[in-house]
Amino acid sequence: MTEETKLGKIEISPTAIAHLASQAVLQCYGVVGMAARTLRNGLAVLLHPRESYRRGVEVKLVDDQIIIDLYVIIEHGTRVSEVAHNIVQSVKYNVEKALGVPVTQVNVHVQGLRVSKE
Prior knowledge:
- With 118 residues, the protein is α+β, with helices and mostly antiparallel strands.
- It has helices at residues 14-26, 49-55, 80-99, and strands spanning 2-5, 8-11, 31-34, 57-62, 65-75, 103-114.
C-alpha cells in the first residue's frame, strides 16, 4: 500500500498490516490463538505467538483496498459467531486507526476449538 504526497512517499507492507491485525485478534475475548492457514490431517495447528502474525494472517492489497483473512482457534464453550464478530470489529477498528485507511473486508476462518489453559 502506497500513499504519495508532495512531501514524499509512504509505503506500508502487508507484513506490517498483518502484525497490527494479529495483535488485535489476540486481545479479543474467546480467542485461544492464531492457526496455520492449512489444516494438517484435519487438525488445526496452534501457532506460537511470535509466528502468529506471519502465518495466521493473510493480507491482500487489491486496487488500494485492504482485505484481511484471519485463521483463528477459538475457546470451546464460547459463542463462535459472537467471537468472530468481535474479531472483525476489533481488527477493522485497530488497523483503520493505525493506518488512517479503510479496511474493505475482514474474513475470519475458525480453524478449531480448544479448551484454553488458565
